[in-house]
Amino acid sequence: MTIGVWVLGDQLALGQTALASRQGDRHQTPVLMVESRHHGQQRRYHAQKLVLVWSAMRHFAEALKQSGWPVTYAIAPDFEAPLRQWLQTAEIKTLRVMAPSDRPFDQYLRSLDLPCELEILPNNQFLWSVSDFNTWAAPRKSLLLESFYREGRKRFQVLMAGKEPVGGQWNFDKENRKPPKGGLNTPPPLTFAPDSITQAVIDVVQGSDLDTFGQITPFAWAVTREQALAVLENFITHRLVTFGPYQDAMVTGEDTMWHGLLSPYLNLGLLHPQEVIAAVEQAFQDGHLPLNSVEGFIRQVLGWREYMRGLYWHVPEDYFQRNWFDHDRPLPDWFWSGDTAMNCLHQVIDQVQRTGYAHHIQRLMILANFALIAGLQPQQVESWFHATFIDAYDWVMQTNVLGMGLFADGGVLASKPYAASANYVNRMSDYCRGCRYHPKQRTGPDACPFNFFYWDFLDRHRAKLQSQGRMSFILKNLDKMAPAELAEIRDRAANFLTSAP
């Protein structure tokens, strides 16, 4: 009986369960990998995202061949035709696939009427299994990140001193909110020149009729496990020491600050979260790193990343169409072009165009915050995030954008909407200095749109927001506004998207 393994494009790890199950018989186990052009057309993906995924897949196929696996690598319009051809040619009786990370592909895989037995093995690219997360979530009325994060620290014995957290507290977030004041000496990210395989993929994407977003070059991302490990080492050695204090800061011309740039490699399987966490914890134990930076980073990987994936599979299907505020304004065209007079949005969108990347505060407090307070349609916004970011996948973006960023789920994920005026942007960035709008004004021709959209958002949704977290205190400020001022705020918010870039 011939057992074959289908390796999906975001499962590029020798230790993934389908490959691991046949490691001892690898020389007799046919492996299939497929570049689907149709899959690359499902969204207007960032050109560098397509290059990253397809180059990483091609490099991984070569690594498998060198390890003795018989690999068939297909470049085809879709998945199904090369899959069926391979099943027939290799006389596969049992097809093993590691469970997809995304719901749509899982549904697609299970819908295939194949001429062989299909075995879907558990996905081991995360620390928490779906069933373990569901067991944790089942008895709880609220699924708070902090509770999940603490449970993860205990379960996996990360930064623990017996039963207590190292340093005497679980969370050092208050020490990680320094604004970018004074000169910042940020380290350059580790980059890689395209090799022949990557250049061939760049040529393919450039020469195709794929409708892509952003610039395809310069392409400087890692495409192999060895390169991804080098990025991890570089982060720990040169960037993590100052990552903590300035992880929320935003500076013009600083694309990466001290951030790790590890998410694309974790999401592809080139790195495993356990090894990333272990390496960071070891560096801390060796005495080289401050606890607030180490804990802040581990909270993102062990806490936030695992929490988002767990929730994604835990929530019902209708979650992904929720729109708690009934927001229906279409996504402005300038979200694709970056041609807006709002300097913060222009800077971040320009950065995404050039690199496919923005750090978590640029995503949450610039892009998603604006989309929330301006009343943009949630599913359109999520689709834009999914298309434009190099580390985007369905499991990443659905709960992050709809739940955290837009509060479209009505509070399943977050305790209150992450809505903020220009005051936050001005405090945590230098974007306001080069802007044609004034961060202190909420009315008048120079009023910052973040201000009048923020107050209009609170005004429009006052009844719903009254019971959300600490929102009732903020909402009382509406009563202090002169009627004429509030009327102008409403008018500017109603007309801005159709009258000004």
Give the SSE map:
Layout: E1 2-6, H1 17-20, E2 31-36, H2 47-66, E3 71-76, H3 80-89, E4 92-98, H4 103-111, E5 117-121, H5 130-137, H6 145-156, E6 160-161, E7 164-165, H7 196-207, H8 225-243, H9 263-268, H10 273-285, H11 291-314, H12 334-337, H13 343-355, H14 360-373, H15 378-388, H16 394-405, H17 422-428, H18 449-460, H19 462-465, H20 471-475, H21 483-499
Parallel strand pairs: 1-2, 1-4, 2-3, 4-5
Antiparallel strand pairs: 6-7
Helix pairs in contact: 2-7, 5-11, 6-11, 8-11, 10-11, 11-16, 13-14, 15-16, 18-21
Tag the structure with descriptive keywords.
single chain; 501 residues; alpha/beta; Rossmann fold; DNA Cyclobutane Dipyrimidine Photolyase, subunit A, domain 3; 3 domains; five-stranded parallel sheet; two-stranded antiparallel sheet; 21 helices; globular
